[in-house]
Amino acid sequence: MNSDKTILAIDTSLNACSVAVSYDNKIYTLFKLTPKKHEKYIIKMINNVLKLAKIHLKKIDFIACTIGPGSFTGIRIGISIAQTLSMIHEIPLLSFSTFQVLSEQSWIKYHVFRTIIAIKLSKNSFLWGKYCRNKHGLWIGAHTEKYFNNIKKIPQLIKNCKGIWAAIGTIWKHYIFQKKSMKLLNTNITTPQAKYIIFCARSYLKNIYIIKLHVYILSIYLIFRSPFFIYKILSFIIF
Predict the structure, then answer these.
(1) What residue ranges carry the coiled-coil annotation (predicted)?
(2) Torsion from C-alpha of 79, 83, 89, 90, nearest 10 degrees
(3) What is the CATH number of domain 100-186?
(4) pTM
């Protein structure tokens, strides 16, 4: 059974450090808000959650981490640590979109199978995505992940949405929503937690029968800022 798999989950994609271990049918987890200080806490938190579960890295079956969208630096830190542990200990590595994990987090609490994610970056800029949960428990929507620099685009982005959607992210509590054909459930979920990476991993392992050892994983940076340009980036982290 996939729930028997021992999984170490790591998230540093937004403004928190979060780690979790599934072992012996239990999930052990640690969470700490650490804006721009991920590197200070994440290694210690991994060690502490392994001690909490009373397990050594050698007994981990899979490592799973988030790959963005989110904080440019935070994503790099989480992926670098996950890849290093994976290669040193020869543990298969799984990766998930931050928005997949947030959607699973919402699903566990509210059981709404469609999510809209809007993470505010500045006064007008935000990260955006829409996900739907299929009959196999997998979240589909990576193609919708985008960066926008005009918050006034939200009505246009949701104009074709109908039915009930779970609203995730930091924008919705300030956003006045009016649309008769659509109900928006404000979840107040703004930050991913690593234990929900484990639920994503279990669904993935249940549906994928051949898992290969990943040496490099793809990270998602929807925005890279320079003094003059804004780029969309898909970047490999290579050691």
Answers:
(1) none
(2) 130
(3) 3.30.420.40
(4) 0.87
